[in-house]
Amino acid sequence: MSVVMKCANCDLVITAEPNSKQSAACPRCGKTMNAKPPDPLIGRSIGGCRLIRRIGMGAMAVVYEAEQISDKAKVAVKMLTGESAKDPENGVRFAREAEICQRIKHPNVVAVHRHGCENKIHFMIMELVDGATMEAVIDKQGILAWREVVHLILQVGQALDHIAKQGIIHRDVKPGNILLTKGGVAKLLDLGFAKRMGTGESDRVPSHAGDLTMQGVSMGSPSYMPPEQVLDAKSAEATADVYSLGATFFHALTGQTPFNGKTAYEIMEKVLRHPAPEVRSINPNIPKAINQLILWTMEKKPENRPQSAGDFVRELETAMFAPDDSKRIKKLRKKQTGSWMTAAVVIGIAVTVIGLGVLFLFLMK
Known about the structure:
This protein has 365 residues and is an alpha+beta fold. It folds into two domains: 3-126, Phosphorylase Kinase, domain 1 (2-Layer Sandwich), CATH 3.30.200; 131-206 and 214-339, Transferase(Phosphotransferase) domain 1 (Transferase(Phosphotransferase), domain 1, Orthogonal Bundle). The chain has helices at residues 82-85, 88-103, 134-141, 146-165, 215-218, 227-231, 238-254, 264-273, 288-297, 309-321, 326-364, and strands at residues 3-7, 13-16, 23-25, 32-35, 45-46, 49-57, 61-68, 74-80, 112-118, 121-126, 131-133, 168-169, 178-181, 186-188, 195-196. Strand 3 (23-25) and strand 4 (32-35) form a beta hairpin. Residues 204-218, 340-347 and 349-363 have low confidence and may be disordered.
């Protein structure tokens, strides 16, 4: 049976081979890692699958590698933790996530085959991806080569464009929610915060979130969220995912998030008030066009960003073949901002004319 180790310093969890030592140096921070007690769920079955080993764990759910009892095919099984399942709303959210994912068929989205609730355990049976998250790769390698990152971000952009056309917004795009296969394929996962556009779906704060009042703390990851989502998660539209993809792009090219802080509140304050930094100010080797495109995706106002993931993908493809042509994107940004300014001026003139007309009629009486 595999040995699971957890670092008490940075919380990294790894699975070691059977008969491994009970302690080892953490590959991330170098501190000593100790073996955890055997997982009681290993070997048990749920949803027609036998659990083999734990491969991931978050605040609300845990993921296991498993095999289907019927045909021995390898799958991933995601389950709500016992603590999360105590809140019925979390079970509803989990089932909604599974239902949304089952309808999405795209090579760059982790597939969900089926879901259910067995012995009060909410579960979903998913595609097993042989690889690590983009976050783990960044932690291990630091700054990634820009052409490699472009290749991966293009795939995620295509996935976001696909789900947006089905009326779905992800709302939690980040390196930790992108799996990278050994063959260089990026797969978007975890639609736990997803919503259907134009619906009144609940955005109630989960019970585990504590007393934090800003929606951004519980409805996404502050370092990758746009201002409108920080203020009100319900207001997020497709352009919110474009912003988050830009922030993810930034992280992969620089090894750090666009906005940093000691607390979630400090990060969110910066998201709301500070302009996005330039990638080239941290990594001068990044082409000018890529730098401009990321700045465009991270505009504070949704109307000033690329209006869809599809638009973003098309511009990124162009930038990849003309990486130093920043003028094109600057013109697009100026044109977009200018169109909104023109509209505002026209509206302002119209209001003024109407007001003068009303005043003239009043004086004529």
